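Exercise 3.2. Students should predict the tertiary structure of the chain below and write it as structure tokens, then compare their answer with the key that follows.

Predict this chain's 3D structure.
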Amino acid sequence: MRKAGPVRKAEAVVAKATASVRKASPPRTVATTTPSGESRTALVRRARRINRELAEVYPYAHPELDFENPFQLLIATVLSAQTTDLRVNQTTPALFAAYPTPEDLAAADPQRVEEILRPCGFFRAKTRSVIGLSKALVENFGGEVPGRLEDLVTLPGVGRKTAFVVLGNAFGRPGITVDTHFQRLVRRWKWTDETDPDKIEAAVGALFPKKDWTDLSHHVIWHGRRICHARKPACGACPIAPLCPSYGEGETDPEKAKKLLKYEKAGLPGQRLKPPQAYLDAGGKPAPPLGAA
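Answer key:
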């Protein structure tokens, strides 16, 4: 039976509208996968769960450099390159006693500073950096450490990593600290496969609320120093083993893994001579001063 004219006309209008919508609509895309093969949603959930688990393991996590003000933290962070926080903490008491302010350090005799910094390694380059950044603080910022990223990175020897340490821990402004431990662990956990620190910072930052960035950095770095070591991670003693796609790269036997633990997890002193009270309350031990037995 032949359709009436109005019916055919209505069907034509519908067909034309449908074709127009199909043409205008973007093609459907398949959800992109991550380095672990998970969906983006699954990765975000796993990453945030790892951070929650680590927050329970290290509720007292803190910067492992001794400092009393932004200037001390800035100097200590610059000195920590290519050495341990413990060595820096053992060295800076003499430095800050002799040069407590940017004005003092800016006017210091380089040879005297070199002698103080010798235990930190690369002491000549570090002396140039700390004196140079002190002069920049005096000349450009009135002797005060600036609280903005764009200002901090103009100082000699200060990059984004150092700037975020200072912003997060001296000014309470969230930032991700991409040091060697952080880089190693986020790739082991397959949060990202990037190798450039700035790209790692962006990729990992996108997985978490900004307010979590500073504490996240502490949790990851502490875990890298204590359990998830570079050469032989203690997989058998790892509290997040079920969430780790790289489980098995290290020692999986629980008893053998326990022997690989470092710092307070192994009953040893941490890296600060003057750690926060919360760390001491949790059983942590302060590090010995330079030259102590």
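Discussion points: The chain is about 50% helix and 0% strand. The domain at 52-61+176-270 is CATH 1.10.1670.10 (Endonuclease Iii, domain 2).
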